Model the fold of this input.
Amino acid sequence: MGKKGRVTLPTQEGMDKEIEKIIEKWGADAIRNSDGTQLSDGVKKLAEKVYATYFLTRSDQEWAKEHPDQLQQMYLMSNPSIAKENVLEIDIMDGYFTEQVTIDTNHDPKEWWEVVDRTSGEIIYKDNWEFNKNTGKVIINEVKKYHSYTVSFLVYQIWDATQMYNHITNDWGDKPHEMPYDVRHPETKEHILSALDNWCKESKDVDVVRFTTFFYHFTLVFNNYAKEKFVDWFGYSGSVSPLALEEFEKEKGYKLTPEDIIDEGYYNSPFRIPKKEFLDWLDFQQKFVSDTAKECVEIVHKHNKEAMMFLGDNWIGTEPYGKYFQNIGIDAVVGSVGNGTTMRMISDIPGVKYTEGRFLPYFFPDVFCKDGDPVGEANTNWLQARRAILRKPIDRMGYGGYLNLALEFPEFVERVEEICNEFREIHSHIKGTKAYTPTFKVAVLNSWGKLRTWMTNQVAHALWYKKIYSYVGLIEALSGMAVDVEFISFEDIKKDGIKEDIGVIINAGDEGTAWSGGNNWLDEVVVTKIRNWVNNGGGFIGIGEPTAYQNQGRYFQLADVLGVDKELGYSLSTDKYGFITKDHFILEDQTEELDFGESMKSIYGVSDSTQILAMQDGDTVLAVNTYGKGRSVYMAGLPYSPENSRLLLRSIYWAVGKENEIKKWYTTNVNTECTSYEEIGEFVIINNTNIIQETVVYKDENNYFNVILQPMESKWLDI
Amino acid sequence: MGKKGRVTLPTQEGMDKEIEKIIEKWGADAIRNSDGTQLSDGVKKLAEKVYATYFLTRSDQEWAKEHPDQLQQMYLMSNPSIAKENVLEIDIMDGYFTEQVTIDTNHDPKEWWEVVDRTSGEIIYKDNWEFNKNTGKVIINEVKKYHSYTVSFLVYQIWDATQMYNHITNDWGDKPHEMPYDVRHPETKEHILSALDNWCKESKDVDVVRFTTFFYHFTLVFNNYAKEKFVDWFGYSGSVSPLALEEFEKEKGYKLTPEDIIDEGYYNSPFRIPKKEFLDWLDFQQKFVSDTAKECVEIVHKHNKEAMMFLGDNWIGTEPYGKYFQNIGIDAVVGSVGNGTTMRMISDIPGVKYTEGRFLPYFFPDVFCKDGDPVGEANTNWLQARRAILRKPIDRMGYGGYLNLALEFPEFVERVEEICNEFREIHSHIKGTKAYTPTFKVAVLNSWGKLRTWMTNQVAHALWYKKIYSYVGLIEALSGMAVDVEFISFEDIKKDGIKEDIGVIINAGDEGTAWSGGNNWLDEVVVTKIRNWVNNGGGFIGIGEPTAYQNQGRYFQLADVLGVDKELGYSLSTDKYGFITKDHFILEDQTEELDFGESMKSIYGVSDSTQILAMQDGDTVLAVNTYGKGRSVYMAGLPYSPENSRLLLRSIYWAVGKENEIKKWYTTNVNTECTSYEEIGEFVIINNTNIIQETVVYKDENNYFNVILQPMESKWLDI
Done:
């Protein structure tokens, strides 16, 4: 295998010698500057390709200062205030960070703002409130006493969210705040494009323009203590402005209200079941962003450079799994590989020449310090990513941060060399061929479908939240599993039914969220199509509160399919019987105690065909059911672990009724996995832990052998 | 103190000598026959009063057999069935116990039954289904495929629920099944009344007619395995019949539908927020039951006997806390004392001459056996009841079951003697005077209010359920607490506001239940009145999911008052900050780890004034807030324990802002309590445990002393 290629190195000024050494050691063929560093000419010559980060909307702060009316905007909601007197004054900026945003006094509040009575849900007539520019307060006259009121108001963004975050986190002191300007203003757009053109002209050594990113940042709002107040990696709030809203009205033929953006203060988090208006907004912005980004890419191409997009920061509107993305014509996408899920989120992006993943840990002082464990973090990250890479690899890898920090940890430098070699080794084996998957596909069903491919149940890129880890584990398990995964929406089912090749549908999430689906489960087309499909042999897996919406005597609308329902208190009078079956196909590989994470209380069996496989503290946490020719599995949660990944795999095969086909490129030890590439006649067995593992490997049901794997080993064998 | 009186003894045939001894020993002044036993003349002379159980609706099985069309009835719902073909056949009795109920073929199904599409919620037009008497199946034509259907149908009750339960539990073999007949039929009513009259005439030795009970049994339905299928101690299902429904229509001016009774299969469990139609039904039946029971009582009185009612079994429609109860003119109520709550449920009944409690354990073989611990159970029962008795005593006590079993346990006989003596001692001290309470009242707020006084959050009389014990603990703590408690409804608040003497309002329960209140919290009158009241100094305590109904950006509609809300997933993007304060007035007496039972996940602070006092596994479980001049406390649950009872007491005093008044007849050790009777100049200190306890006792803030209490001791002292 080659000792060079597929690796991008972050660089630093004044370290040319060390960089040369490390390029050699890690086999890097590309180098890039990080935010805040510049490449020296010496260094630029060491690599085949030089990446340069480019910020489209904040490179020219002079422009920003000269055009304060063309800065990016945002709708914010004031804190809910209770009217205790006949007049209520609301300090709308209370709780917000005045260094990040400032009230928009250019646009008429009476036209663009909204005062809402949150007790009654009514919009307050505009003559009944006033905004006082001097005090920053909205005064509501003739309020209803003890009702709760909010003000939805417009601000300008006067500090770019990423620069603010880095500035505050790294204590950049009096380094100027960068203000983001809005490409939707024709004048600003022209300036952005010509600045890019000029920069390309001047940056002759740059081979790859790494857009970081395009125009609109995901929603990140700080509070009055300069700490994070709101973060939504998928959030479109930062793309909103009166100009955009006016153009929306022209394009879509109707007007959005502030509440369409404010959404009761939830700001259309992806956990909210998306309303038509918000989906229209997404469509509108995607179209605009893709058209404008395309113009940027064309400039880059004109200068014979490649255009790469960072999947993060100002990525809003690009939507790599949306219908406008490929229109941009971007050459490559790079993103952070936090785990297997985020790896697949990058590697599955359609229509780009190559993808690249930035591995963890970042070379930052929080890990590269006396008490830090950079090698341990690198191993954890690599093991989680590797199983996903073997399913569908990113084309390139890299690291980020300050190289000098990494160089102080020689063991880390060694370990990264091994990881880079192993990454290249994978590519040298599989040669772009497809890993073995069974004949059926697994579909993850939620309100978002394809648009949120590998992005379900998440708040911010790979961040842990107590409320989500028991669902994110599903996606993480799937990211490295020998099955093809599709993300489908309720709309897909309504329009197109359930496609032929789908063997198992999974619905996972808390009641009322976009992931579980909320009132989509009242749609008779959805429930009858799924019932019909399962009855005819389909497999259905529910996790947490699948199909949940209290109606007509059921909480799980497909309780009949799942064989379980959840007790809300209404049916305590009904006796629940149920005994535990411990012997079952889906439990055969389990050696540890079952772990359902946050789990789910009050689940109970509802049908004679329900088999309860596990109860915890009196609640059913694992159950299976048969339904006509089909089957279903219920799990109370699925945090990621090798055991749970196996539990899911077995559940999938059982649900689809193909238990006898599971022992194909299969290992008996849950801490190991096997991936086969039949086209090239090779297969690989991996150890997902950092201790020795022994396992039986099944080529098929009749051909198996024992193997011992060293810690983290990947063993390539000929079929 | 007297060594005799206030105690009722169960008797048995052929044990006259033993009975004489035990009457003497326990100081019994009344004896009664149990279900299935008869009193001998010898025994009858030993007591001042003789009770005899009387069953109004099943004493004459000849009558029942001769009038099968006048048996009691019931609406049942078939199992939900999924239509997988164009025609659906539903075996409506599937899952029911054919020995308990039989399909009513006398009344036209097309008029009285209902077939419901549970997928769409639509009622199926009556021409589109047929009932086949021979197969017991309903055939639905032209169904919508994969919709779910149920049939609401009428049955006759052919086995009295209590007799069935005892019969099956005690294996009574071929003892005939007793069928309950319906007093609503004029002919049957006349028969019931004249039979009672005759029986009174003949039963000259009987002083007290113990009605067990009146006409309608609480809902108790068995399944096809002769096991309990549905139990609701408050359920009115067994009071429904076409005759009653027709009379309802005449009286109330509109017709009930089967669905008003079936209620999606929840059968109007008290956890369901009661609909107007069901409340009207309750009113209608209460009126009828009270009128008819009154006639029975008058017959008893005519014979110079007392009329006593058992609070249980066929108690439906009596509603001791309802507006018609006192119309019955009953002399006494007797009920089972399962704990402090059920003790108060009996002792607080207004308008009767005396109340009586049947203590645990029953003299049944499950406890009175080799491995049983009758003394332990008696002690537990006594300690839980005693603290409630000291607040508001029942007038008499007694035991139930088979005396011969008890006599085999001499220690138990001794212990009961002590308990009887202590019970009489309490009465000899307090002489009907009122225990000390502070100037403010505590109100428990839910959908039922006064009607369910001491009956909140329960399924069946004092039975443990996983889903309720964390709420029932609230009521149990209050039952023995030095505060006056009122049960109020949302309607009360809407009509009358919050009464002057209420200091603290408590709302406790799961979202969507009658206890928490569901959509009552969308009522602007309710929320504004409570906000106003708290703002002006009221105290609000929320347990579990208080004020919960997802709307306008809030799950807890009074999140502003409570200072906390619950995360459903919509606001994960919003950062939650909060640190724990451990020093707080309400925690001062805690020595053990806090225990919130089933607890509540995803609770977080929403206001700067919120003080989080405890978190468990990352979730807020105890928090306090200030709101204007008022205060609030949030608890994630409150299972009963001495610690939690104290936590509640302190929360009440803190919420009402009277911390400086708590040390009045107060003990510092949570396992002890003090009750004072200022009118008689005495107070009592009790040890609620069976180990020695030491405590400081506060007469008031400046007068306190140390005391050591023996296990379970009650120590009476002069003020």
Notes: Chain A touches chain B through 70 residues (CB under 8 Å). Chain A has 18 helices and 35 strands.
